[in-house]
Amino acid sequence: MAAAINKIKEKAKLEIVPVFISVDPERDTVEQVHDYVKEFHQDLIGLTGTSDEVRKVARAYRVYYMKTEEEGSDYLVDHSIVMYLMNPKMEFVKFFGKNYDEDTLAEGIIKEVREHKRS
User: Which GO terms describe its molecular function (predicted)?
Assistant: First the structure.
């Protein structure tokens, strides 16, 4: 995603605002999410919330997530991996799955943004 964001800026001169939403509010504090997203891209915005808020957002975007127990006291969170393209009004435009490489993702986003600007 980070590489695609850079390609979009270089190729199409478009500013994309990437957002990451944690699905593990029990473990991910605001500070942890802030530090985590900066490892990927300087413009990536990290969000978290209460368990109820995360559940509502996940349901709204049909994101699967489930806490799975591991040996010992640690756990993992299994989740779907989806990127959503939203328009400036925060309305859904298109989703991109984890099978998109950086070039295909960048081209797909550029295409959708250009179509949106024409309409």
Answer: metal ion binding
